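A note from the maintainers: we've had questions about how concatenated examples are separated. There is no special marker in the raw files; a new sequence line simply starts the next protein. For clarity in this README we add a label.
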Amino acid sequence: MITLPLWPARVDGLFVFTRFPQPGYTKTRLIPALGEQGAANVQRQMTEHLMSRFHTHCRNSSFEQTTLSVQVHFAGGTAEQMASWLGNSFTFVPQCKGNLGERLRGALQQGFASGLNRIAVIGSDCPELDLQQVTQALQLLNRYDVVLGPALDGGYYLIALKQPLPFLFENIPWSTKRVFEKTKAIAASHNISIALLKPLSDIDRPEDLPLWYALQ
């Protein structure tokens, strides 16, 4: 178990959910088109693409007198393998066991317990995502309880919170077109206010690959 530091006042978190690019265990929906190694290569490249953006702009950066801490929450591999791959500029935290909702809930609870003020969680498979969306999401939390970045496939590429709200991750049909709408419905049932970012595409299926190749 990793013990995260207790932060001083006004530190926000950017949690990047990703997976060590081990063939056969990552981007499995791309395997029919690319093979196990090809799908793992896309996972590796997309994560590197994203982290290069946030390494430059987010590492110990600040806005609104708030420091932004970037953490990589990973599945598969070890913290040593992740650091060897992505460098030592980030904090590497293993995801807890369970489905995606349980892993998101666990990461957020751990982050808020460590003293983080606001947290944005993103995946590594939305290549259009940049600092602008993350900054906008965190700022919107000054007026809303939750911020969602809807993905064009029916999921979401970003969720930002200022308190854990674990019920947002319960009874969600993960990896389906209903994730975003179901999450909105749960929030509405709890009188939770939501702000939305602009919709973006993520790279999950073979038909999504042209977008990724166009960005190379």
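[label: protein 2]
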Amino acid sequence: MTRDRNRAAALLSLLFMTVISPLTAVAHDRNGFPKKVDARLYEVTENMTLDDLEHPTLRSATAALQGTANFGTPLCPADVVRLLLSLGLLTKVDRPCTITAIGSDVVDTETGAGTLTGIPPAGGFSVVINLDNTTDAPEFVVMTGQFEGTMQVLADTSVNPPRQLPLIALTGGTLTPLDVLGVPIEQVAVLGLDPASFAPVNLTGVFRLPFSLDRSGKRRRAHLGRDAYYLGDRGQLIKVKPEERSLGFPAVRIEIDF
């Protein structure tokens, strides 16, 4: 099985070298995470539809996401963390913030190009902390905002027709904070915060879709009870860890940089 995985890794690496993308220069740590990644989110649920079952041209989906953002990033502002600390809502600083989000995308099934949006009231992001139950996932909302961007499914262009890769690039993105503790950003001075610190920021990222391999190294559908992998930026296989599953299913991993 190890030989099959090595063969598959070499094949995927060769395929990925033919793709022109902004991901090729990103360095990774031993766990497969980009060293400079600012946030990591996972797709917890997804509802998808097609415009035409026989000849689909558009794939539309809405997904619920959860993950973490590094301290000091736009999704985990240091000033907000310190405010929560002063209010007794947090006990430690310098820890990643927990992020939840709801986003919708529309992708052209022929070109792989699409858009991603998360705009209230149907979508957007929230920074959440534990409050009334410190055992389950954080749920108390301390900051909200919206996001949008352009998506492109990456493909191996050395074959005809191009072969889709389990990677989606997110470019031209914008993240816009909307409020802190329910106070609109333009009024957060009442909380001792500077509204200018919450200006919209640009973002980029990558969606890593999980997949499995059979003994010949061919991709198979990832599901319960089967090892699953993400494709790294250098074409390497990154094994999906237990905490990267949602109710047992391998989850799409989204890596975001500002």
